Amino acid sequence: MMPADYIDQHTSAQVAQGQLTKEDVKRMKELYGIGDSSFGGIMKSYGQWLSKAVRGDFGVSFVYGRPVQEVIQKYMWISFAISLVALILNILISIPLGIVAATKQYGAVDYTVTVLAMTGISLPSFFFGALLLRLFSIQLGWFPLQGLSDATKILTGPEQVLDIIHHMVLPMVTLVVLSIGSLMRYTRTNMLEVLNSDYIRTARAKGLSEKVVIYKHAFRNTLIPIVTMLGGSIPGLFGGAMITETVFAIPGIGSTSYKAILQGDIPFVMGYMMFLAVLTVLGTILADVSYAIVDPRVKLQ
Amino acid sequence: MAKAKKDNGHYISRQEEKAIAKYNRKMTKELEAKKHRKNVSEDTYLTTMKDPKNIVEFDDLHTYFFTDAGTVKSVDGVTFSVPANSTVGVVGESGCGKSVTSLSLMQLVQAPQGQIVKGSIRYNDGEKCYDIAKMPSEAMRQIRGKDIAMIFQEPMTSLNPVFTIGYQLDEVTLLHNPGATKEEAKKKSIEMLTQVGIARPEGVYDNYPHELSGGMRQRVMIAMALVCNPKLIIADEPTTALDVTIQAQILDLLRSVREKIKGSIMLITHDLGVVAEMADFVVVMYAGRIIEMGTAKEIFLTPKHPYTVGLMKSKPVVSKKVDRLYSIPGQVPNPINMPQTCYFKDRCDRCHTACEGPYPSVRKFSDTHQVSCYLYDDTNTKDNDSMEVAK
Amino acid sequence: MKKSKKLLALLLCMTMILSLAACGKKKDPEDTKSTVAPTDTAGGEKSEVKPDVPEGRRDASTPRSAANENNPFVIGELTLDGKFSPFFGTSEPDRIVYEKTQAKLITNNELAEPVAGIDQPTIAWDFEMTTSDDQSKSTYKFWLKNGITFSDGHVVTADDVLFNLYVFLDPKYDGSTTLYSMNIEGLKAYQTQIADESSADAKLAEFAEAADKKVEAAIAGSGEAAVVDKLWELVKESVAADSGTLIANKYEPGDFGLDGPEDFLDTAQSSIILFYTASTLGKELIAYKNGAYVIDESTGLTVDKMSTYTEEDYINASMKCIKEAMTVPEYDEAFGFTTVDDAKKFYAEEEKAAYLEANKGTVKSISGITKGKEVCSDGVERETVTVVLNGVDPKAIWNFTFNVAPMHYYAGQERHDKANGVDNFGVDFSSREFMMEIKEFNGLPMGAGPYKITDVNNSENPTSDKFYENGICYLTANDNFMLGAPMIKYVRIKTINSGSELDSVLTGEVHISQPQASSTVINQITSDSSYSHLNYVLVDNLGYGYIGLSAELIPDINVRRALMSAMDTGLTLGSYPGGLATVIHRPLSQVSWAYPEGSTAMYPFDETGAASKDFFLKAGYTETADGKLLTPEGSKPSFKFTLPSDADKHPAGQVFLKAQEVLEKIGVEVIIDIDQNVLSKLEQSVISVWAAAWIATIDPDMFQTWHSDPAKNQAGSPKATGLYYKFENGTEEEKAILVRLNELIEQGRTTLNVDERKPIYSEALDKAMEMAVELPTYQRKNMYVYNKSVVDPGSITPAEKTTPYMGPIDFIWDVSLLDK
User: Fold this and answer.
1) For A285, which of C13, C176, C717 is closest by C-beta distance?
2) CA quadruple B153, B157, B160, B164: dihedral positive or negative?
């Protein structure tokens, strides 16, 4: 996996200065279950982990000191909340823009949309996040710099909620701006394809107004691949946006897992990978099912 | 290299490209604006028919496509009429402009590239006469689907896959009959489905298009066209995509439909057999212009234009044995840069010196039969009427 | 498929996702443990005896100022791990959080002296360190204050102190406190459960003997099959390790004197182990002749299947041949491994672990740790805790600065009631489950410190998720704190991103943080008006940079001195402009009391190269006509300097570049190499010159880093600097220096008296410099930035008392906020 070893990292300074002996380090490693690093030892450890994992026990995280499920659960909701809102905003902005770009192809909106999309996709998140912070937080002081809530005040009930929303604005903007590009383009491409199809011509031939043709007939068909893509991405929302979370010091699952990986926290990383794998499978299932619902041509067996 | 230079048809330089784009933008902007103007009074597009017995009169129609490679003159001066209670067959090769003619009639030409540039299309709805070429799209929508209906070539893809058949049929009723309820629409739809010969209309009503066969889908298309009792049905190659047995059924259906609705059918096809069976009048198009037209009998028994002759010869006869099937040599000229001479010149086996001249004018053989060819100069061609009409 | 069925499927999917998210929610231990107010546990004396708190102690009845009562004080820290436990916390930010809830047994003052007392935030009222006359034992005695309570009202007793000790010293303790490295009398017996300590060694020898017999028997052929298997398993591991090394280092048959094809590395690299085995066994197991491979059938492999064989196959084949050809000891001899010894060690460990399991409970306590009661010099009776160590170790006192955490809370009321401080300390011996129980409280620290945990709504008993929520830890004042009810009622620690420390204070998100010290920051604070509400404090860093030279790879002491004379340590300051670092001349942190004031460079930098040249010549180098030097062997001198990162980025980079320039003048070549992993390679004695930094320890004892007798010291760094090597193979001059140095080091450890130790270390540091293996370079400063319009600058640690051992807000209970 990685050459990082949790115990080695944490004891190297002490070992170099002689405060801990090699035997002490070895004993520590035994206690943590990572004593035997030969191939056979690793396989044995994996077997032990697997037998416990199947029963739902993913062990205790080295770095965070609590059972892995607890740690993941604690942090994933924040990430999920931010990602979900960002996703909804993303949909609300991208899809209408994509449709307009497609229907008025080569018009002003189309070009603006394309440029925006390319910019959004190419911007690195840490750069954009830092830029927003510099402008809106430090210079203008409109939004807070870090974290999810204001520690300098005592707040009650609804104030707390407003405070959290206030803190979420900049990270949300960062996430949304970076992701609208692709969804917009995707919608536009799909829309164009659909608009060129025969049944749209039939719809027009029936005498339907352009609006109905686009928003009812064309839209439903455009939506099919989009819905499946979005449905499949819902479980991914729990995975967190590592860089954005770090820049804004938001304690989400992304930055949490990054720290754990750097320090060689094996139980956490194994548990987290399992978590991601399960999410991916669920996402695929969700995408398949939603595809079946939206498209009457597809049958669910 | 030298050959390529001469045959410059496929290479465009940057300046040319820019010039073309600029020109395209100008033209399309103008014409689109005209199409989309709102709140115009009817007077701007009311007119009178030359012959009140016609339903549609095409008068020097020019429909161009403004593409990146240049202007494609799909329909370049087409004049003919569709009388009431008759079937007009429009024949020609692929790319001769027959579909575009019908789409022009419906104002369904692919915008913004395709535009009706010149000419008029007069439509007689019994009381008033509209010039479709001048109508704004808003007004056109009242007619489309209601008085003039169209069925298309590809039944497999012409129905929206996410809506049921019933929904798509009801839509027509609900659209053109404000105040109609859902039950009324459903009743009408099922009535139409029965009329086109579908066995279980209630079942089919709830089906999705992918659950029906090609033939059934085409029937549904026809039903959709019939919902509002149109005066004219345009059938754009309705049987090309179907197998022969179904073809016969659909054609029978069309015939019975026409009798029932007492309207006209404009049948576009490249299959001469279909035309012979169905059409009263035949219009032969080539490269965007009509080269010959007349009654079915006239065209089939006495074709005049070498192209028409060639078409007749090309049709294989089942019982006859031949060594080699006949085909007209050569190809349709490049639609962007059409020559000034007769379009068929390079392929014609009866071409002579006179053909080097400008495009031949119309020569009439009878009230109904006319042709554009230099071969028939000695007939009374210098008819002033014809000259005006066929400019 | 009907639409409704599809919707149902979709619903099922969403339920699956959400239930996955919600699964595994454990009940917080808080729910099951009670936190009822305590009953009298320590007998009746509580109500009569005065608590040991300062006169005029501020208590809860004194109202706070408006700002202190209503406005939270926010401290900015880097990301928290969430292990807020005095037992198991590992990261520095976590420590900052939980130590606010804790009180230590003894603590240090700003001069790094150990202190305890009524005016100190310690559980100990006083302490005493004594040594026996023959230096064989040292005794540490602590008197505990009366009437000190934890934040929930339970009284702190000697039993609590013992509880903490026994947790730290338990064999299954895996936290970062290293109390177990102290040589406490009776500790070994306790940990091995062998009552007689002297017989403990004998017992261990017994295990070793039994293990030896087992292994020998197996080798001779009369032993257990499992042991034989284990031996061969170890052999296979060694063979596999060999294979790995051979492949990683791209060995070819030619390296063993055998023939191989040109494209060996691309086509058959995994077979290299077989070639190696063949050459060592002296048998032709595999060969490459006339363009084709030939494989001996004894390997069990065939040539035509070569393309399908994996490394594993070749290893197995090698094993097969080895097994047939030799015994395990012969394998060790031939291949240079210590399989037999490894096996013996393995079985000895097995015996020891088995014995421990079987004999748990034989030794119930550590004989060197006792508690008692005494009447003190002021006539008041107090509890005492005494710890006896074998030998004298001046560093040991610092192990007693541990936090005294409550037993009833961490081990449960049941264990607390059973504990008596004599043979039951509230700890389940050597029990993983017990440690797990303590770890349950990793998110909910509690102790006798100035603050206690709360949550955003200031509730009494927060859950761990609420205490540390959204990256913020919520604390509220513990009005029972021994030195007084803290001035500020609400303290919060907020997570900020590294790099945003200054900006966070600027925008007001936090009130104090620690940005990287740099002159740009200082300039901004002092001159930019938008920063006018900020103030900064500079503190020396607890550690220093140095350049190391390996005495093993550069054996001549004069050559080392020559190289040092070409290094201008002042150039390191370039990385820390604006007075944010100083040069140091002895290998010890400047802030320590043992650093000899006024010491100067032992090998002053000579830019012309003349000083270096002199040393080189003393080392036997010769000079050519144009002033360039040659080694005694007559070749051009060349040295490799290694940095862990680019020369522009590393403070010592400029020093190396300049040295390269200077040495070039006298014809000596310097190659500067960049190697990210240089620090991990040091012990392998492959790096001749490198730059790194030490973290300074609070005690100046030099044993681990400078004692060069390998019989007495096995630490890693004298190996890196080559001191062990020199101890055995050095010149007379060098050996003399090392012997004297060792003497001094040992002397410095015999007494606990600072004044006696100072001159010893002064000489020892000089001796160390004479060896020319470490050139200290710089010590930089750290910076605190705080918002002086929120925090009362008069309430933080005054400048003269601010040292690396006492930060600005270390006495958090005295810090006060300004009313607006």
Assistant:
1) C13
2) positive
